[in-house]
Amino acid sequence: RTAIEIDVFNGDTQKIQRLEARGFSFVCHFENKRTYDLAQVDLDYTLEEGFTIQTFSESLDFAGRVALVQSAFDNPSYTENNLKGLMASPDYIDGYNLSVISPDGQQVAYCIGWHDRSKANSGYVEPVGTHAAYRQRGFAKAINRECFRRMKANGISIVEIASRAEPDVANYLYDSLSPSTKRAVHKYGKTV
What we know:
Blueprint: E1 3-9, H1 13-21, E2 25-37, E3 52-55, H2 62-72, H3 80-87, E4 97-101, E5 107-115, E6 122-130, H4 139-153, E7 158-164, H5 170-176, E8 181-191
Parallel strand pairs: 6-7
Antiparallel strand pairs: 1-8, 2-7, 2-8, 3-4, 4-5, 5-6
């Protein structure tokens, strides 16, 4: 038997009714998708003294970024090849690959912004991470706001960020950035 799963916004009652009529049932609240109107969000931020934000290309510290990602996501299998593959994407924009740099030169938080080619003047941010030793200090909020600033300067007016459903702690960060909308994505499934 093959399990079929489909994601649907929880407010899409017509689609949910059609799925249920075809034998699908609710599996879980899978993720949240937030939309930010860059004309309305706060783009100001401050960093602790000595910390800065720069593009990844300003340092090209691959080992430092790999260590950051491994810590941020508890993912020891992340390698330099993963990072280089991401940067080789035809949609990669260097100016949106940002790092918060500590006074001693360590990358402590990062995010990557992207233009959404399927929607005019839209973009998204994915991934976002903070080194475990530097959490709860505002670095992820600051780097998202800097990415928003850069995207807005390039004509992007709407940005989306998706996150795992609660209790994922990233939801606190993304809610604190004042999204204009937040929609729950539910997973429905069926065994055939």
